[in-house]
Amino acid sequence: MQKIILSIDGMTCSACSNGLEKYLNKQNGIYNASVNLVMANATIDYDEKILDVSKIENFVKKAGFKSLGEFKEIKFEKQDSNNKIKLIIFTFLALLLMYISMGHMLNLPSIPFLDHNKNVYPYMLSLFIITIAFLIYGFDIIKNGYKNLIHKTPNMDTLVSIGVITSFLYSIYNMYLVFKGNQNAIMNLYFESSAIVIYFVKLGRYIDGISKDKTKEAIGKLVTITPSKAVIKKNGEYQEVTLDEIKKNDIVVCKAGEKIAVDGEIIEGSAHFDDSFITGESKPVNKNIGSKVLAGSLNYDGYVEYKAEKIGKESTISEIVRLVIEASNTKAPISKIADKVSGIFVPIVIIIALITLIFYLIITKDITESLTSFVSVLVIACPCSLGLATPLAIVVSEGLCASRGILIKKSEILENACKVDTVVFDKTGTLTYGKLKISKIINCSNLENKQIMQLASSLEQKSNHPISNAFKDYMNEHKITPLEVTNFENIAGYGIRGKINNEDIILGSSKILNHYHIKNAHLKEEQTLAQQGNSIIYIVKDKNILALIGVSDIVRHNAQEVIKQLQKNNISTVMLTGDNKEIAAKIAKKLGITQVISNVVPSEKANVIQKLKSDNKYIMMCGDGINDSPALSLSDIGVSVQSGTDIAMDSSDVILTKNDLGSIIQLINISKKTLKIIKENLFWAFFYNIIMIPIAIGILKPIGISITPMIASLAMTFSSITVILNTLRLKKIK
């Protein structure tokens, strides 16, 4: 199965996106298609044996839209000066048109040669010519409306187009009657209705475009983190290139004050770097030969040359952007309500409008009143506000989370995070920094400490567990030369083993001794180390215990406050760790966690999560994304605390790239606000249509309240703007 994200042109409302989504999902070879109205793209999972990109793009064309190719970057469709100038010109024409056609109703001074009583023909022709200008201005709306009607995916443009063309043709008919001598027909001209409806739709689109750009600002900032150009070194010569020209293994130069262009490894020089956009670490980090650098990092004070490793879409920041975009394209459960309604909304409105037309023709036999009500119903209905209600809020919240180092892989997380009643924490690397150090060596052999640590550190060099870093640091500090390791094996949940000089070396917790049936005569020493807050690593050679190594860790600076805040919000906290009972209890007591489950291997962690879920708990599991993968996958929401460099391989639903547990509180808070905003948006969208459509039909005419097509178009625009402004309140979340 392959996945592609296509940029789509021609979508103007939820009926468009829903229609395209349904059409794509019906096609053979497409497993799943999700269309995003706000981001104007479609995420498509397809069978590469049946389909290719050109065939998929052809499906998009047949559905009445246009594929702009693979989605490569977030494009800000900012309103250019031409659009602004056009809007200003047509604002003036709209006011002029209203003055000519309706000024006399307000007793305003008339324009003598355009007076509807004295100069009938110039009056009619002026309205006709100005309206033609508006039809040209709004031709894209009319074209799109009828195109979607032909493709059986009617949308908001379809409703507007039918209403506008109907009013225009009826006005031309009455203008013809005037020329034939029927002067009374001049009162049945509705050119201004056609023109003003187009004007308000265009005005709404202009405001909508600006607002949609604002929803993408946080995501867009991620794109601008990396520089547009860089300097590479080839054969001793320096050459300035664009990012697209950089290839893997190229030597890239970065001077003080410049940003790293692509992910790589330093091969010459050293400098302090600001990685805060990913790691959240505010202090500059010193990096030298062998250190990894991330695209977008700012070089404060040095000169470095680094080898390009991850370029283009492979870079960490590109992966972050991809995850955010894909998340915004997934559907939150609550959006299904709006999708179902929007899918049948336009056809129902057309039917209601036709019934209204027929009803008035039969009852009043007044074609003018009948057509006015018909057009008003078509124009006032607003599927746009209904369609924007959920995706707009999701995109704003996704961007908000991304800007705070919270990467969400599925938008349903934003709906469900507020349901969490239990947060389960891994200890090492999650509640603690995972920045371990060797604090104590209890030697049980005839070997020197340096020899024992040489064996242990050599083996740990092959491991990626957080504890291995303590041994690597110890080896560097004490200038220990590593030995060759063969037959290395990672024994999940227990430890590691390998051969050094043909001797079998085993490292791990006390569980590994039981695993290999090795007698432990050092329980007293283990207890002493544990009481001091150490994790204990046994070093075994040929089934003989050489030493016990005490490894200590540092609790995260805000872990205690996060636990306190969760408990204050009636959310239970659980520590789930593979460490021994004494160490786990000591850390838990310091943090205020009362429920501790210790001495569990990764597979057992998943069982614990399953048991908690069986007690009707809504579980968020927070781990380091390495040994906790089974538990993260099984929990309702899996949260990974990590540096962000292995994002693509992560098995969690949420990634905290800034390594800040406080982000969990932020996520739950944003989830609550997002769900509240979505519900408010849906309420106003439904309420608007439930109230306004009956008024447009004429239910309040007996008490003198009615709606003209012009007022209907203004109300329709106001409905969408209300939803947009309400959604933008999310940006104020602290």
Verbal overview:
There is one protein chain. This protein is an alpha+beta fold. The chain has five domains: 2-70, Alpha-Beta Plaits; 81-216 and 325-392 and 680-732, no CATH class; 227-312, Distorted Sandwich (Calcium-transporting ATPase, cytoplasmic transduction domain A), CATH 2.70.150.10; 409-429 and 556-664, HAD superfamily/HAD-like (Rossmann fold); 437-552, Calcium-transporting ATPase, cytoplasmic domain N, CATH 3.40.1110.10. 48% of the residues lie in helices and 19% in strands. It is built from 26 helices and 25 strands. Strands 5, 6, 7, 8, 9, 10, 11 and 12 form an eight-stranded antiparallel beta sheet that branches. A hairpin with a 2-residue loop joins strand 5 (229-234) and strand 6 (237-242). Helix 11 (335-363) packs antiparallel against helix 12 and helix 12 (367-380) runs parallel beside helix 26. The longest helix has 36 residues, at 662-697. It is elongated and about 120 Å long. The mean pLDDT is 82.
